[in-house]
Amino acid sequence: MTASERVAESQRCFLSHSANETFALGARLGQLLAPGDFIGLIGDLGTGKTEFVRGVAQGAGVSAAEVSSPTFAIISAYRGRIPIYHADFFRIRDYDEAYATGFTDLLESDGAVLVEWLNRVPRAAPRELILLSFEDLGGEERRILAYAYGTRYQHRLQTLIPDAGSSKL
Ligand SMILES: Nc1ncnc2c1ncn2[C@@H]1O[C@H](COP(=O)(O)OP(=O)(O)OP(=O)(O)O)[C@@H](O)[C@H]1O
Ligand SMILES: [Mg+2]
Fold first, then answer.
1. DSSP letters along 44-103, please?
2. Cβ(22) to ligand 1 under 6 A?
3. What's the helix, strand, coil split of the chain in %, to 5?
4. Whole-angstrom Cα distance, residue 146 to residue 106?
5. Residue ranges per domain, the chain?
6. What pLDDT sits at residue 64?
7. Residue nearest atom 23 of ligand 1, based on CA coordinates
């Protein structure tokens, strides 16, 4: 499921200089999401995946209170313009465990699905997805590499991050 195994229809690079900037990028994606969409987020601890998802939720019309409420669930569901399902596979060991969470039902659902640590369970990735890879460049700088796998995401990734010029992949 990594970039090297398949050719992405589109790829972009976004440099974030603050948590707010990462949140804002997420919020823009939240405005573009449609039912059935799947977003995978990978990258080390503390690189901004959850910050991004919080932005997505806000952009999709989820109230801030709903997202900030503490939860220990592996999958959280937020009610926005469309349902937003937020899963975190950090503690998931294999596909069977992911399956047991009811995760696969979400793929057929009326909402958009975002999964942190998708690389822990590569089999859980659908053929078509947006994959976001977060990297800490020091301080508050984060590099977010974005890949659209599947034509359904190609245009939206280009809308989200219009400038391909900074892309050095
Ligand atoms: N440019 C940035 N983008 C995102 N977060 C940033 C940035 N600069 C600093 N931060 C800080 O880094 C932390 C990112 O935490 P976050 O929970 O989003 O990471 P994560 O990738 O989800 O980690 P985990 O793998 O543990 O779930 C926050 O404390 C945030 O304030
Ligand atoms: Mg997180």
1. STTSSHHHHHHHHHHHTT--HHHHHS----SEEEEESSSEEEEEE-TT--SHHHHHHTTH
2. yes
3. 35, 30, 40
4. 22
5. 10-163
6. 79
7. 46
Task: Identify which of 50, 51, 134 to mutate to test ligand 1's pocket (most ligand atoms within 8 A of the CB).
Answer: 51
Integer Cα distance of 83 and 69 in angstroms: 16
Given a cut of 70, whether residue 32 has pLDDT beyond it is: yes
What fold characterizes domain 10-163?
Rossmann fold (3.40.50)
Query: For residue 60, which of 73, 77, 48, 43 has the smallest C-alpha distance?
Result: 77
Q: Which residues surround ligand 2, an ion (CB under 5 A)?
A: 49-50, 116
Count of residues in the chain: 169
Nearest Cα residue to 42 out of 122, 98, 99: 122
Write out the two tokens for 55.
């932005």
Taking residues 86-111, report their average pLDDT. Answer: 92
* Amino acid making up residue 147: Y
Which residue, 130, 141, 131, 132, is CA-closest to 15?
Answer: 141
Could you give the percent of the chain with pLDDT greater than 70? 91
